[in-house]
Design a protein that fits this description.
Two copies of one chain form a homodimer.
Chain A: E1 6-11, H1 17-28, E2 31-33, H2 35-45, H3 49-53, H4 55-58, H5 62-68, H6 76-94, E3 97-100, H7 104-107, E4 114-120, H8 123-132, H9 141-160, E5 172-175, H10 180-196
Parallel strand pairs in A: 1-3, 1-4, 2-3, 4-5
Helix pairs in contact in A: 1-10, 2-6
GO molecular function, one term (chains A, B): kinase activity
EC number (chains A, B): 2.7.4.25
InterPro entries (chains A, B): P-loop_NTPase
């Protein structure tokens, strides 16, 4: 049985979830997978890296996603999801790690030591982070954020049949308004507590 | 502006959320409202206490709840919700406190220092707690728990128009599988972190 400690982090756009994951991995001294995961999945599958990067963004609505899938053939999005899931399982076998996004909580649902985290924040804080840290254009920023979250939610629902952001699916969810470092500290405490059980 | 620290706790049936609230209030040295809130709301409104106790349990489905409400008259459930909400606002004005259930997060949504918590746990742990701690009959226990949660969810959705257990509505949500005392510790840390911001 795989005994590695795997922490998956899903997050609203602009909530700082990726940064929290990166700092948490650093504090715990474990591997961190975000873009590196997509790069590796691309290498291992032979599919182009850009296709992985934009997979969530293509998921504008469930209806279109359903149309692109058929019971007889795999769509390119299905192929990408499968390739990504294979890489997620591989990295989970290799050692302790933090994985951001990519429905990793669902892909690793049968791993006993998987701790699933969801990070969110209020819209004003997310707007500021998107503009100042991700250099997103200020115009229509709220609309852009809402649309990007809709894509993440749609992609998640389509591939997992679970609800994105439903508390019961995660070990811990946090409003990152308390600050990135505080959020890292709390998740680290949760991880320690769960490992001692 | 009200500067009292109010912590609201909503919870799945059998997750230990009430116990966590009680211990948290004790550790923080603040008032705890659960059944006491209903008792007080009954006294202040003149309505019978039993009506408050069973308000959630009557919410078996949204359709029936909607039928019992009309735009012209208040149903007994509406009257109870209003009476309860008035008492919640009063106790929030009186001082720091922990309030369990009663849609308190929604009722106090405009209070700046309100920290909203949701507690859940896996079904096996909830079954054990229901049988061993709440003395519920073992027969059909999973069905009973599912039904009680459905009532809580329906009641919440009807009166708040929000989703029950949606991470984004809470400051912190936790799987209480880490243990009651650990959950209390984590929420206490969150409260301290938020107050320092």
């Amino acid at each position: 049985m795989n005994k590695n400690i795997i922490i998956t982090i899903d997050r609203q756009y602009g909530s700082g979830g990726r940064k929290i994951g990166e700092k948490l991995a650093d504090k715990l001294g474990v591997a961190f997978y975000d873009r590196a995961l997509l790069k590796r999945a691309a290498e291992e599958s032979g599919l182009h890296e850009d296709m992985f990067k934009n997979a969530e963004k293509r998921a504008t609505n469930l209806f279109a996603l359903s149309l692109s899938s058929s019971p007889y053939t795999l769509s390119i999005d299905d192929e990408i999801f499968i390739a990504q899931s294979k890489t997620i399982k591989k990295v989970a076998e290799e050692g302790n790690c933090v994985i951001v996004g990519a429905c990793a909580d669902y892909v690793l649902k049968d791993y006993p030591n998987c701790i699933n985290v969801f990070i969110h924040a209020d819209i004003e804080k997310r707007k500021l982070r998107a503009i100042n840290e991700y250099n997103m254009p200020e115009e229509n920023i709220e609309k852009t954020i809402t649309k990007l979250d809709k894509c993440r939610s749609t992609y998640y629902v389509h591939y997992t049949d679970n609800k994105w952001g439903k508390a019961q699916n995660y070990d811990i969810t946090l409003d990152s308004g308390i600050g990135i470092d505080n959020a890292v500290e709390l998740i680290k405490m949760y991880v320690n507590m769960k490992n001692k059980k």
